[in-house]
Design brief:
With about 130 residues, the protein is an alpha/beta fold. Helix content is about 30%, strand content about 20%.
Length: about 130
């Protein structure tokens, strides 16, 4: 058994399969999940695991070259907005409906237990060299 990093075997395996340019949607429990991408549902109960915990864990494992979030996050969820701004200085913002459209092209969806609106981000994978 792994003693560090991501222990969830489904998530660890999905992350290992990602390549340059692949999309990863990290979303709250209320986000409609698109059909098509691989889904790893980590939601245990409302708020567990949090969006922040999952995002921080994923960023320890991934190289990210870009991120897109719903522009509504600024008005509706200041904590998530601050978290995203802290991690992604060049954060792209689009209307929530557009983010849902873009998420259909993601290779992986990671659903958190977050129960606050607009706690979601679409990550674009980079390369480590």
């Amino acid at each position: 058994m792994k003693k560090a990093g991501i222990l969830n075997r489904h998530l660890a395996g999905a992350l290992a399969e990602l390549g340059h340019g692949d999309g990863v949607l990290v979303c709250d429990a209320g986000m409609p999940i698109p059909s098509g991408p691989r889904v790893v549902d980590l939601a245990f109960r409302a708020g567990v695991p949090s969006f922040a915990e999952v995002l921080d864990g994923l960023l320890d494992e991934l190289v990210v070259e870009g991120a897109t979030a719903a522009e509504e996050v600024r008005a509706a969820n200041a904590e998530a907005a601050a978290l995203l701004d802290g991690h992604f200085p060049g954060l792209g913002l689009v209307p929530h409906e557009r983010l849902k459209e873009l998420s259909a092209g993601a290779r992986l969806v990671v659903r958190t237990g977050e129960a606050r609106p607009y706690a979601k981000v679409l990550l674009r994978c980079g390369v480590f060299f």
